[in-house]
């Protein structure tokens, strides 16, 4: 069908006429060990943008915590190529991170927070972004180096 009707998918030219499985397999060869989590306890419209950005940087996995439903329009179909994992609770996410050996880094702009660009991050980490409005529910322990 792609050959007969042309490939109108929103993919880079290098992936034209590739199957979705082949695209994912190629991206998997270059994935970065970084994990991203976003909390979805209210109704956060930014999840799609986070998924799209994570896909652009070949992030290992995007974790969505809370509600399973989210507006996929912002992802612009990149959710088909990005690994996604759902966790019902923050505790479930933190258990996953501990089992996977990931350092949890809560990202927020609250007073007293360290500047991200001045912080040495471990290569294998889980960056947790709270939803817009309330702060992140994740309370990771401070990692000292």
UniProtKB/TrEMBL annotation:
Keyword Methyltransferase: yes
GO biological process entries: methylation; RNA processing
Domain tRNA/rRNA methyltransferase SpoU type: 34-133
Domain of life: Bacteria
Keywords: Methyltransferase, Transferase
GO MF annotation list: RNA binding; RNA methyltransferase activity
Protein name, entry field: SpoU rRNA Methylase family protein
